[in-house]
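Anyone have tokens for CDP-alcohol phosphatidyltransferase family protein? Sequence:
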Amino acid sequence: MIDALLYRRLRPILDTAAKPLVKLGISANTVTVVGFVIGLLVLPALAAQRFDLALLCIVLNRLSDGLDGAIARQTKRTDAGGYLDSVMDFIFYSAVPFGFLLADPAEFGSVAGLLMFSFMGTAATFLAFAILAGKHGIENPNYPNKSLHYMGGITEGFETIVAFIVFCLWPAAFPVTGAIFAALCWFTALTRLYLGYRTLRLLA
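Reply: yep, here.
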């Protein structure tokens, strides 16, 4: 919901932080892959109910997600890099609720499954529209440097990370907080479905 605003505010900071990495010859794709591996460590951390370590993995993953884009802007942006970044982001997002399922299947399993189901809704409506937006040349002024067309909603990247932080800080409340966030995700998915369909109908 506020990703575009944060993107503009954080971009100068990330660009500054990326400069030493660029001088060392570290590529954007390397940061993407390393950040993804760190993000997947959330699975064993959550399975062991080390919610503090899981939170650290989440924060480091999101930091790398910002840095890889900054490095790409200072070197060379490629569709291959954008593709790699997007795929790994969506896998990471699903890893967090799956990790809670591993932590306590009896207590967290149903809500974790509901969250993964809701993430499928937000991802499908986002990616399907991004493909067709590229085909029709629909402009994306809020994210001019992104590889894919970003379709907004109540639950974007920032809100998802806030939810993950809440889950890790108060794990016992996950059945409630997870269900609330799943409902917000479905609101986003249905809104995107309606707006995306209406937009493409006008282009027909």
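The first helix runs from residue 3 to 23.
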